[in-house]
Design a protein that fits this description.
Layout (H helix, E strand, L loop, with lengths): L2 E3 L8 E4 L5 H12 L9 H6 L5 H23 L4 H13 L9 E3 L8 H11 L6 E3 L29 H4 L6 H7 L12 H9 L3 H4 L5 H22 L7 H11 L3 E2 L2 H8 L3 H13 L3 E4 L15 E4 L2 H8 L3 H6 L1 H20 L6 E7 L5 E8 L4 E7 L10 H10 L3 E8 L5 E2 L4 E5 L16
Parallel strand pairs: 3-4, 10-11, 11-13
Antiparallel strand pairs: 1-2, 5-7, 6-7, 8-9, 9-10, 12-13
Helix pairs in contact: 1-4, 3-4, 8-14, 10-14, 11-13, 11-14, 12-13
Length: about 450
């Protein structure tokens, strides 16, 4: 909100507000400033927004509302032009960031996209790494009304639900051992029903405090409904909002499978462009995740359809109304959810891995498939397969052998995760490993041969 200026020497003359700066930020500031012409009060809408705020934050907000409402009233009573009063209040709102403390946490920033322009000015004025911690339940940079991207001034961190190793308070080294290509010969008990229990529980901290069964399912369903009704609307225009829960249920029933947008559109009786848009919105609020196919320019028989994974298996089970015992009885569904469970655990652990990792999956037209392909740098490729059984045989490694053949010297290790007791070697760089090794700390020695 920059005024025009015609100054010369000691004379300073300012004019009206120019169009310099971000148009969205200016419009939001002006609209917010007009609200202060009314008497200060806490409406039901403000009460809902401030429900989770600390008492100190609510006290600061109330004092600010009283001060700005009083300023609007005093300037108006002095005969000032209401538009000029509105601009004065708006400029004071813009200066809010400059008065923030040295370390600040700003939550749900997608609700206030106009603040990014003020943050940019303050960051440029004082470069202090870690001064602002911004949190949000959507990919905030994709909000249409975002006033500034903070490019070069912000580092993005995806906060996943809790990993199994975090729940167990363990320090796993699975990814390190994977790229070293050696797994230790350690035995342990099968997980059995407890594996299905872990899958059905998921990793959301709040959900884990709710008793298992109907209450936990209702918590997950309420969480999805809140994101769809509130955050998805901020991302764009939604013509058929009732389709979103149905898309989530279909995604839960087909998790870890290559998806076809046209087939989904036919099932939902809508056009494919709506389905594509809604899937994109659900990805942006971290409910769905797309896993792209692994590509190799020298191999022409690859299937290039992406897979869809739900962000958490507890959420998937809630949408399917399946508990641990029902999941353990349905081995086909357990296999799909186990693949999503292993993939999400690997993604969460990759967040604190030393080197950046790229995730994909491998499938070709001859039905050779590897559930997860992990690449580290340019010259290291590893494959992960999952199986919900207690035993494995050489035929279970056909997809990993095909991946090793195509990747050549880049292939460092292939692992089949299963619900068994021992780690075993199945040839050059191929291992069967109990799935509990994902979150338990294990060594890197020579495993037994089958």
């Amino acid at each position: 909100m920059t005024p025009g200026e015609n100054s010369s020497g000691a004379r300073r003359r300012q004019g009206g507000i120019t169009k310099a700066g971000n148009v969205h930020a200016r419009r939001l500031l002006v609209e917010a400033a007009w609200c202060y012409r009314f008497a200060p009060r806490v409406t039901a809408h403000l009460e809902r927004k401030a429900r989770d705020a600390s008492p100190r934050a609510r006290d600061i907000a109330w004092k600010a509302q009283c001060r700005l409402c009083g300023k609007f009233r005093r300037l108006t009573l002095k005969g000032k032009n209401p538009k000029a009063v509105c601009i004065a209040v708006g400029r004071e709102l813009a200066g809010f960031v400059q008065r923030l403390p040295e370390r600040v946490i700003l939550g749900e920033v997608q609700r206030a996209p106009a603040i990014f322009s003020s943050l940019k000015l303050e960051i440029d004025r004082r470069r202090i790494p870690g001064r602002f911690l911004l949190t949000g339940s959507t990919q905030v940079l994709l909000v249409p009304k975002m006033s500034d991207s903070l490019a070069g001034r912000m580092q993005k961190l995806h906060l996943h639900p809790l990993a199994q190793c975090e729940l167990e308070r363990a320090e796993p080294n699975f990814l390190n051992v994977l790229f070293e290509g050696r797994f230790s010969d350690e035995s342990g008990d099968r997980l059995g029903l407890s594996l299905a229990t872990r899958i059905a529980a998921g990793g959301y901290p709040e959900a884990l405090t709710v008793p298992q069964g109907t209450q936990r399912i209702k918590w997950y369903q309420g969480y999805v409904d809140a994101l769809i009704q509130r955050d998805v609307r901020d991302l764009g225009r939604i013509d058929m909002l009732d389709l979103m829960p149905r898309i989530m249920q279909l995604a839960a029933s087909q998790t870890a499978e290559p998806f076809n947008i046209n087939a989904l559109a036919n099932t939902l009786r809508t056009n494919w462009t709506n389905v594509r848009t809604y899937l994109t919105f659900l990805e942006r609020v971290f409910l769905l995740e797309r896993l792209d196919p692994w590509c190799n320019s020298d191999y022409k028989r690859l299937i290039l359809k992406p897979k869809l994974h739900l962000c958490d298996t507890g959420l998937a089970c809630a949408l399917l109304h399946a508990d641990a015992s029902e999941l353990d009885a349905d081995r086909v569904r357990l296999g799909h959810l186990l693949e999503t469970f292993a993939y999400q655990e690997l993604k969460r652990q990759a967040g604190w891995h030393d080197a950046p990792l790229r995730f994909s999956y491998f499938r070709d037209k001859d039905d050779y498939e590897v559930d997860v392909v992990i690449e580290r740098g340019m010259n290291a490729v590893a494959g992960i397969e999952t199986k919900a059984a207690a035993s494995v045989n050489a035929a279970d490694f056909r997809g990993l052998r095909k991946l090793a053949e195509i990747a050549g010297s880049r292939f460092v290790c292939g692992v089949l995760l299963y619900d068994g007791e021992f780690s075993a070697s199945f040839g050059d760089k191929l291992y069967a490993v109990p799935i509990r090794k994902l979150w338990e700390r294990g060594g890197a020695e020579n495993p037994r041969s089958p």
